[in-house]
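Batch job 17 of 40 flagged for manual review because the log was empty.
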Amino acid sequence: MAEEGDVVSKTFRALVESADRKFARVRDFPSYGRAQGQHYFQKVFKAYMRLWKYQQEHRTELVKAGLNRWEIGEIAGRIGQLYFGQYTRTSEARFLVEAYVFYEAILKRRYFEGCKVKDLGVRFKELRFYARFLLVSLILNRTQAVKVVVEKLKALVDDCNANFRETNFKEWKLVVQEIVRFMNADTTFAIASARPFRYSAIFDCHPNSVQYVARFHAKKVLKFRDAILMSYHRNEVKFAELTLDAYRMLQCLEWESSGSFYQKHQAETKENGVVVDYSGTSGLIDMKLVADMTDPTLPPNPRKAILYRPSVTHLIAVMATICEELPPESVILVYLSASGKPSHINASPVESSGGSKRTTKNKLTSHNSLEQNFSSPEPHINGKKGFSDYNDDYLWLGSKGNGGSSNLYPGDIIPFTRRPLFLVIDSDSSHAFKAVVNYFIKLVALFVMDGFTVLHGAERGEKAALLLSPFRPMFKDPFSADITQNGSQFTFFLTAPLQAFCQMTGFALSDSDIEVLKNAENILSTAFSKWEVILCKSLSLDLVWAQVLSDPFLRRLIIRFIFCRAVLSAFCPPEESEQYVPVCLPQLPNSLSPKAEVVQSSVSQLANHLNVADGFHFDNT
């Protein structure tokens, strides 16, 4: 019997080492690219399935041989990591759910808590488990789970400080501070009854406009398949490598479950002609979901590459890879949120509606001069102003210094316009992208300067769609404008328009105002439905917008942009609207301009409902 126990123990250890080696291969694979290491992932899933099954079948012998409960928890945690890694690469909700299932099982079965040992290594494993579970719970909007795990993480850090005084746990204290700061900034934790950021068929599919959207068909229709999300600000709210703005955009570009229970999906790989399922919960850990976490009837989410503090070269490399792999008749959404020139960072970024009104003359002068330069149909050559002169403004992707290697110029994006792009630029230098794209569009002939080919209009392929943020945000309370505390206002309007409206006007929402919140949401839904119909029926809608209007995610962004533009236009001082109002290129129909009655009346109705109309100026309502 002793020999049999030794064989079981040795076999188990061999399986653990084999699975760990395979795990190490895939752990650091890039999270972008359509077929990045898929073969290896299937091997790792297979290895861990074999390992988990083996420990289940030989649990008694392994426990007698010295198997600890935390070792079982570590295996389950690795499986959770694998599923979360697959989610970041594919954006498939089922993988995120699987990761949550395993982490929740570890927590409920107390695999780590059951071992009261003075083992620093085990304590670090438990700390990392809590951090990973928090990230998955955040993305999945499991707010109660987040609150529970945060308390356990706090207690564990305190316990580690008390029992391992010779070890510095400063980094883990910062992790606790990060998640608490994130929870304070994320309105989901303050308003549990608020509508989800994700696209919900219940809330976002408007009955009055659905027939018009269904019948709408442009000359060319693009499918939204891929997105690149990047947020890079100093001291911005974040947890781990997920910033608040990227988190909001990530959820905004995914489907919300409509109530179906989780159902297994079969993997494509086969062994000996038999399909092997590595994605179901029942094969690895025996638990059932009691919440409606996924809905197999929903279309797939667009893939999202989320970049945390990338270098300029890394961002460009990711864009190149995704553009290269993009299927035909598809569009890429690129979301870039960053500060402009480093010199802009120390400048006052905000004005309040009740405070002094300072004008950034240098910015306005630069902006106006660019507009004047583009009024001519041809670019200047032969010693006059050329393409490089329009690269004075840029996004700053750096933590220190003012080096050119940290500057993302609008010209860096131009090569990727060979594919359809939907650009969302959230920056105090967003106007630079407007200028260069205008310049780009007007180059319709082949120019040669000193033997160097500049560009040819026909070779660039596609005209980009742009949503550009204002130079600066606008709030009734200037303290709300701190991006390091609340995230970007423009991004907030695109992802949670009602909450952004309330934040801007200083209206405090809470769960005690459920009826007020519900009626306000109904006002917005009615307005958005009307605007969708107008877009679908418009004869002046540019093809750039028409070809993406059938996509629910992009259509919702366009509608919310119209709302954001109208709100800020009516809220900011009219003489300074150029600084505080966002811009889109090409222009949307005038029937949905900020001054249009159908738009202003809706904003006015919402403002009156929340008793904040005194802060607005309306022309026709």
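Reviewer: the log was empty due to a logging misconfiguration, but the result itself is present. The first strand starts at residue 223 and ends at 232. Unflagging and moving on to job 18.
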